[in-house]
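ok trying again, last paste got cut off:
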Amino acid sequence: MTSAVGSHLPIVLLHALPLNSGMWRSQTAALSARGHLVLTPDQRGFGTTPLGTGPPSLDIVADDLAALLDEHGIHDVALAGCSMGGYVAMAFLRRHPGRVRALALLASRATADTHETAAERLRFADLVLDETLHGQVVRRTAPLLLGAATRAHNPDLVEEVLAMAEAAPPETVAWAQRAIAGRPDSLPVLRATDVPAVVVTGTQDELVSPEDASRTADALPRGRLVVVPGVGHLQPMEAAAQVTSLLTTLLDDAMTADRNR
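nice, full thing came through this time. structure:
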């Protein structure tokens, strides 16, 4: 198996809930132009990927990613995940150690959900499965993934996010919420992940607090925290150029670290 395309490290970009791989369009174009192989899978149940019959578990999604890498003949990669994608990335670290050479976690917390937060996710899962409430729930909650400034000044992006959210099957959204609610604390695995790493948070993120992001970054031996002003939970879309720059730097740091071994 290979770990690079020429001299460029492959990178996987994992999308947020309830969006799909299209949220990484800007980064995919820019990183591909630099010569990186960029994989942006639609996670289980989203886009063209079937949900399957397995029980809700991020471990299943992490194993899907391992199988995808194996299909491409790739052993190790840079891994970036936003929100749910970050939780899948942490599950991948637990289940497939040694395959990640650089890590970016955006809008993700390393700790498990509290009992109250998990219960709230499970209630949301039930709501989206109610045919009489689904559309109303999506229209109310999806725009809140964006920061207040984005909602006020970028209506096109609000509409794009809403369209992605409305396209997500209710069964998939419920499955993913239940999987996220059941995830374990990932601080121990992050402490053992000694690779170049960046943790990104937005000052207007209403789901992941600055304290959560700081705790995640502090757990990573080579982690650094980047706070993006004026954006919310979907930094790859709200601050596309800045996130692309951060990923570019991360990839360069990983290749430099390899040369210095």
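cool. Residues 11-112+184-259 form a domain with the Rossmann fold fold (CATH 3.40.50.1820). The longest helix spans residues 240-259.
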